[in-house]
């Protein structure tokens, strides 16, 4: 007697095993800027401060991912923490322009949808990275600048602060030192800031102290974000690479990159997009792609800096042509790992070539 089985019965009673597809694994990597960061000039106390701040930022993003949150949420959470930390050149602690004001840039990109948002030269929005995300999700545009960007931030309910909120004494002292060396006019003391004594000078120039985060969540979705105060004593409304999608920040086709360095050269070489393009079109490992592009950057005069990069399979790369880059990473199997100096070995998950 021959039995007739329904399709449902056939599926339910398959005699051969079906291989279970492994779920994507979350990973996050961050940077807090690159530059002349020498071990011999860093005090043990300041070294410990930076490592603690980096660890906290990695953990802030990791906590989002650990609880099933999105890569975009993780990127924003980690960057907002660094924007509030005076150690970094982003948000509170940003460097000053030549006229003694603050001009903040940020961008974020959703690698799943290829949507992006960016802001340039804002001065009243507490978290520029949150504003960049609002531009991406609520404005219909990609890039907003200056007073209009701050006005949009207020319109969508993002926290606004007086520009004095971003003031730090050490950044002001750096500005005065640079302007004096260049023979430029010194600005008046910022309105709303109490007079204070000079801070202890940083052991590094930290001119390229952009912060950035790349992440892939448990759904396999990838994202990148970058935030900065720019360069000390910048003039004439200068805008660097951070809010330029494809230059200092990019995510798509299973790859995400955030950069820090001399913005003009990152723009000319479209550094962030080039790293991901190498992975997309040649299938080279992410570390090789990052090293190749950063090497091209170094071939240009004053083209210094570094990148963090990540692919959807969780591979992570750090590359720099400077003596240091504040950096760190974590994934669902590894607690936050951080490093400062270029010669530090930071073991990261990487796909085999």
Describe the structure.
Helices cover 31% and strands 22% of the residues. The protein is of the alpha+beta class and 353 residues long. α8 packs across α9. The N and C termini lie far apart (56 Å). Residues 1-21 have low confidence and may be disordered.
Describe the structure concisely.
This protein has helices at 7-12, 44-66, 71-83, 128-139, 146-155, 169-182, 263-268, 271-282, 286-298; strands at residues 27-35, 104-110, 115-122, 143-145, 211-216, 222-228, 249-252, 255-261, 305-311, 316-320, 324-331, 334-341. The protein is an alpha+beta fold.
Which key features would you list for this structure?
disordered N terminus; 353 residues; eight-stranded mixed beta sheet; alpha+beta
Structural class of the secondary structure composition?
Answer: alpha+beta
Largest sheet: 8 strands, mixed
Task: Give the overall shape, derived from the CA principal axes.
Answer: globular
Strand order in the largest sheet: 4-3-2-6-5-1-11-12
- Mean residue pLDDT: 90
Question: Low-confidence runs (pLDDT<50, min 5 residues)?
Answer: 1-21
Proportion of residues in extended strands: 15-25%
**Percent range of helical residues:** 25-40%
Q: Secondary-structure element sequence?
A: HEHHEEHEHHEEEEHHHEEEE
Tally the beta strands. Answer: 12
What oligomeric arrangement do these chains adopt? single chain
Alpha-carbon distance between the two ends: 56 Å
Radius of gyration: 22 Å
> How many individual helices?
9
């Amino acid at each position: 007697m021959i039995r007739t089985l329904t399709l449902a019965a056939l599926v339910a009673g398959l005699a051969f095993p079906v291989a279970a597809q492994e779920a994507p694994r979350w990973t996050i990597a961050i940077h807090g800027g690159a530059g002349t960061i020498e071990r011999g000039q860093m005090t043990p106390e300041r070294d410990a401060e930076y490592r603690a701040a980096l660890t906290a930022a990695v953990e802030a993003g990791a906590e989002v991912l650990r609880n099933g949150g999105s890569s975009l949420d993780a990127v924003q959470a980690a960057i907002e923490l660094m924007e509030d930390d005076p150690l970094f050149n982003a948000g509170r602690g940003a460097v000053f322009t030549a006229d003694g004001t603050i001009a903040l840039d940020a961008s974020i990109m959703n690698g799943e949808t290829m949507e992006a948002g960016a802001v340039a030269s804002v001065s009243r929005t507490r978290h520029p990275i949150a504003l960049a995300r609002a531009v991406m999700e609520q404005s219909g545009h990609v890039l907003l600048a200056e007073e209009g960007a701050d006005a949009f931030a207020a319109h969508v309910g993002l926290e606004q602060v007086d520009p004095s909120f971003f003031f730090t004494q050490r950044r002001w002292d750096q500005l005065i030192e640079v302007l004096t060396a260049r023979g430029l006019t010194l600005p008046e003391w910022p309105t709303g800031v109490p007079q204070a004594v000079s801070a202890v000078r940083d052991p590094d120039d930290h001119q390229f102290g952009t912060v950035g985060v790349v992440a892939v969540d448990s759904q396999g979705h990838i994202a990148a974000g970058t935030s900065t105060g720019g360069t000390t004593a910048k003039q004439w409304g200068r805008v660097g690479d951070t809010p330029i999608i494809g230059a200092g920040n990019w995510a798509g086709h299973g790859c995400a990159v955030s950069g820090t360095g001399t913005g003009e050269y990152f723009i000319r070489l479209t550094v962030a997009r080039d790293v991901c393009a190498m992975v997309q079109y040649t299938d080279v490992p992410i570390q090789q792609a990052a090293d190749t592009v950063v090497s091209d950057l170094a071939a240009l005069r004053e083209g210094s800096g570094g990148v963090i990069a990540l692919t959807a399979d969780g591979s992570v790369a750090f590359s720099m042509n400077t003596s240091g880059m504040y950096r760190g990473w974590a994934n669902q199997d590894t607690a936050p790992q951080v490093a400062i100096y270029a010669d530090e070995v930071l073991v990261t998950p990487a796909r085999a070539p």
